[in-house]
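Batch manifest line 186
LIGAND: BIS(adenosine)-5'-pentaphosphate
JOB: complex structure
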Amino acid sequence: MRIILFGGPGAGKGTQAQKIVDHYHIPQISTGDILRETAASASPLATKIKEVMSRGELVSDELLKEIVAERLQQADCQPGFILDGYPRTTRQAHDLAEILQQRNLNLDAVLYIAVNEQELVTRLSQRGRADDNEETIKNRLKVYESSTRPVLDFYKEKMLLQKVNGVGTVDQIFVLIRNVLDAIKK
Ligand code: AP5
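JOB STATUS: finished
ARTIFACT:
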């Protein structure tokens, strides 16, 4: 099963991805986690990535394409994967299509975890990650609206979009996600 978890910052992509990993035994590929690891490493890109993330801007499409192409080649992705936080621009959606096409793979679904902006702000403000300060949250939401939300149309056209209500308890939302994923598996 190859799926994308889509949603605004704080929508619960990482939280639900973890539950999907446990239940369906496919790996989570979180570009945010990969970038945070790179930013904390001795990579020559570390400083630049850290600076972009701290402003709540997006890291370049080119770098993301390299990261994702390399990660998807790894053996654990053979049975499927959950992309968490990628693609985030229509350019990235095209890049992903190219990466998958080269390997004759299709996506099964794009799960859109829908959460209103007020709830997103509340969740992020309570968490306290380095990019969860007021100014950066504001910009992450702005970038989401301008660059990321349009990706929904890309997948809607391809009939891959599945929307779930992302407000409720973590377990309630996971039931909705399982309903979608179990129907795909059949
Ligand atoms: P990334 O790490 O992907 O951050 P994000 O999309 O802003 O999402 P979050 O991780 O903040 O939230 P989430 O949806 O995973 O929710 P979570 O489960 O954590 O990206 C960070 C940065 O990296 C970007 O800003 C960008 O700079 C860069 N980047 C990453 N990918 C990129 C790409 N493809 N291209 C370019 N740049 C890229 O939950 C959030 C909080 O809410 C938690 O505290 C959680 O406990 C809580 N919560 C979860 N579910 C619920 C619930 N149902 N009810 C109440 N609280 C809940």
